[in-house]
Amino acid sequence: MTITSFHPPRRTLMGPGPSDVNPRITEALSRPTIGHLDPEFIRMMDELKVLIQYAFKTENRLTLPISAPGSAGMEACFANLVDEGDKVIVCINGVFGGRMKENVERFGGVPIIVESEWGRAVDPASVEDALIQHPDAAILAFVHAETSTGALSDAEALCRLAKAHDCLTIVDSVTSLGGCELNIDQWGIDAVYSGSQKCLSCVPGLSPVSFSDAAIAKINGRKSKVKSWFLDMSLIMGYWGGEGKRAYHHTAPVNQLYALHEALCILQEEGLENAWERHALHHRALTAGLAAIGLEMLVPEKERLVQLNAVVIPDGVDDAAVRNQLLKDYNLEIGAGLGAFAGKVWRIGLMGYAANKSNVLSCLSALEAALLKQGYNFKAGESIKAANAIYA
């Protein structure tokens, strides 16, 4: 069997990630590979740290990209901050809060679970109760933007509660970075991780992270050695620290880091607040179009993510058949539901480069065609009319 070059189809990616990659970023990937200790690469690394600080709205000195996807960024935060026996309050309102609990257990911590209804934001009152009941808790962990449900939690309020009870915070911002307000320093977040493939519209495989001085102090004062060698921040700091000679830690993914640098340059050119508003605008147009043909959103309006839209699948409509038709006939990918919402919701992403008027209108038109084929009753063309009214 002779295997030839792989040429993927050209899709429009409007699922939960990855998102469409800006052509400037694919061009950046093709630039010449140089050594990961080359002086020019080191210069680019320093710029990359500044760009990530900009995106996170932080001056944290320990801010850098982990050379692996967002799941590794998550593991880096828990591996470094959770010591043996630490009590960690973990908020679960979807799939990714459950992964936080897994990390706490694997690194020797004791998880204290605060459950919130899937499809809703984390309840601050329940978190406050847990903090009062467990005054010895060391960390509060929660997902800012729960990708499995499209719910956005009030990170500022949750961090304020944590600070009042002398807790550090670990925050999942995989879907929020670049797509909606996220302010590390103002909100007092101690450790945060994200991903390159969502609202930054970069290729998958990198995880921007940031640690506060309080988090660094916790790392330096650990009772036991960090259980992951690769993700031990005390070692990684030697490579990304920027003070004098860089210590070799691993061979960085050189071209992927070019791509992230370019993605963050694009974000800076647009302006962070402008990017947030762009995502919000296209969310309003999409949801207006969906409502016009009788489709409901899973999450209440005030708790909704604008960049990840969970749409309730109408009774009698075949989830997989609709998604397959969109992929086959329109080269359009939307996401299926996860966990408790498998087969019950579609997850439509408006992230980064994919958050634009053309994609919104194309998605609504294709969805109308697929729903008509399913026998779903609505007035054709109404979704486009409603979305255009928002743009007008």
Please explain how this structure is put together.
- The chain is an alpha/beta fold.
- The chain is built from 14 helices and 14 strands.
- The longest helix is centred in the C-terminal third of the chain and has 21 residues, at 272-292.
- It is globular, with a radius of gyration of 21 Å.
Low-confidence stretches: none
User: How many strands?
Assistant: 14
Number of helices: 14
Mean pLDDT: 96
Strand % is: 5-15%
Strand order of the largest sheet: 2-10-9-8-5-3-4
Helix/strand structural class: alpha/beta
Cα radius of gyration in angstroms: 21 Å
Gap between N and C termini = 56 Å
* Largest sheet data: 7 strands, mixed
**Percent of residues in helical segments?**
40-55%
What is the molecular shape? globular
Order of helices and strands: EHHEHEHEHEEEHEHEEHHHHEHEEEHH
